[in-house]
Design a protein that fits this description.
Structural class: mainly alpha
Strand content: under 5%
Number of strands: 0
Length: 128
């Protein structure tokens, strides 16, 4: 891990161009990386009213009260909402008689599975 990290740091030093990176583990990045990133942006989940508008735009044929309830129960990101919309398309192709609200609710639950606090971390962990 240290060897890979050193190689990446060296490549960043010598890079003549633009490098963009994203992570949801910024607190685990080595300080050496932090010094090499010129701009750092922190993206948060959308606020309630923004999330509701994203839901309405993606599911414009679904009852607004239902979407409001979904919005309150699930703090979804725009990407998660996009995933749900794609899965809805697949579901609708496979089942012409589906209950849209039931399927959306199930997909929201599935999409939030990784947000549970009882998960064990995997991969490299910086234990400093």
């Amino acid at each position: 891990f240290n060897a890979l990290q050193n190689i990446l740091l060296q490549e960043l030093e010598e890079l003549e161009g633009i490098f963009m990176a994203t992570t949801n583990l910024a607190d685990q990045l080595d300080k050496a990386f932090d010094r090499r990133f010129l701009y750092k942006l922190n993206y948060q989940k959308p606020k309630d009213f923004v999330r509701l508008n994203i839901l309405k735009n993606n599911f414009n044929n679904v009852d607004e009260n239902f979407l409001s309830n979904v919005n309150t129960r699930f703090e979804l990101t725009g990407g998660q909402i996009a995933n749900i919309k794609k899965k809805m398309l697949v579901e609708s192709i496979m089942n012409k008689e589906l209950n849209t609200e039931e399927v959306i609710e199930r997909l929201c639950i599935e999409e939030c599975i990784l947000n549970t606090s009882d998960r064990s971390p995997i991969g490299f962990l910086n234990k400093n």
